[in-house]
């Protein structure tokens, strides 16, 4: 994520990955304040065996796009809700990549963080049967958790 202040959003991605028993690392890497850290992180990502990078950022959200420019590892962008523009700035910054440098872009905020984690798991599940069954279990639990009526009675 681009800032420690993104963690209240990005912890939902982490919690979802925890639930799926999917190993991850959570790092603060700012495209603007720590550009050398971003360069090192993205340039070493493939060699370190990362299968996907979930990059959450807000405002002038350059982290996902710059990460995608620096590594062939798939980048999943999460627009963090910004104070001034409610995350529309983040969304447009992340989604409007030039042709040739893709970033898979998710919804603003918590839903996007959760879905980025689920999407990463789904990518891994294409050739990992255990991951696929954990994802099936997640979906089943989600379905079972939807009540037929809005009240408890
Ligand atoms: C972005 O600037 C971060 O991703 C964060 O969403 C936003 C604001 O950062 P802080 O000023 O709260 O550190 O780079």
TrEMBL record:
Pfam families listed in its UniProt record: AIRC
Gene3D superfamilies: 3.40.50.1970
Annotated positions binding substrate: 3, 6, 33
GO MF annotation: an example: 5-(carboxyamino)imidazole ribonucleotide mutase activity
Catalytic activity annotation: 5-carboxyamino-1-(5-phospho-D-ribosyl)imidazole + H(+) = 5-amino-1-(5-phospho-D-ribosyl)imidazole-4-carboxylate
EC number: 5.4.99.18
Protein's UniProt keywords contain Isomerase: yes
Gene Ontology biological process: 'de novo' IMP biosynthetic process
SMART domains: AIRC (SM01001)
Record's keyword terms, sorted: Isomerase, Purine biosynthesis
EC top class, as a word: isomerase
Domain named PurE: residues: 1-146
Pathway field: Purine metabolism; IMP biosynthesis via de novo pathway; 5-amino-1-(5-phospho-D-ribosyl)imidazole-4-carboxylate from 5-amino-1-(5-phospho-D-ribosyl)imidazole (N5-CAIR route): step 2/2
UniProt entry tagged with the keyword Oxidoreductase: no
Domain of life: Bacteria
Protein family membership: Belongs to the AIR carboxylase family. Class I subfamily.
Function: Catalyzes the conversion of N5-carboxyaminoimidazole ribonucleotide (N5-CAIR) to 4-carboxy-5-aminoimidazole ribonucleotide (CAIR).
Matching HAMAP family: PurE_classI
Full protein name: N5-carboxyaminoimidazole ribonucleotide mutase
């Amino acid at each position: 994520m681009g800032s420690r202040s993104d963690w209240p959003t990005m912890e939902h991605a982490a919690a979802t990955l925890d639930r799926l028993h999917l190993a991850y690392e959570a790092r603060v890497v700012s495209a603007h304040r720590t550009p050398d850290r971003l360069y090192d992180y993205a340039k070493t990502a493939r060699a370190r065996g990362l299968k996907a990078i979930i990059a959450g950022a807000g405002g002038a959200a350059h982290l996902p796009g710059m990460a995608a420019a620096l590594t062939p590892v798939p980048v999943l962008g999460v627009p963090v809700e910004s104070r001034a523009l409610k995350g529309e700035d983040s969304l447009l910054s992340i989604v409007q990549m030039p042709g040739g440098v893709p970033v898979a872009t998710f919804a603003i905020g918590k839903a996007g963080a959760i879905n980025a984690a689920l999407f990463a798991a789904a990518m891994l599940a294409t050739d990992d049967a255990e991951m696929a069954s954990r994802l099936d279990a997640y979906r089943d639990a989600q379905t079972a958790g939807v009540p037929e009526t809005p009240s408890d009675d």
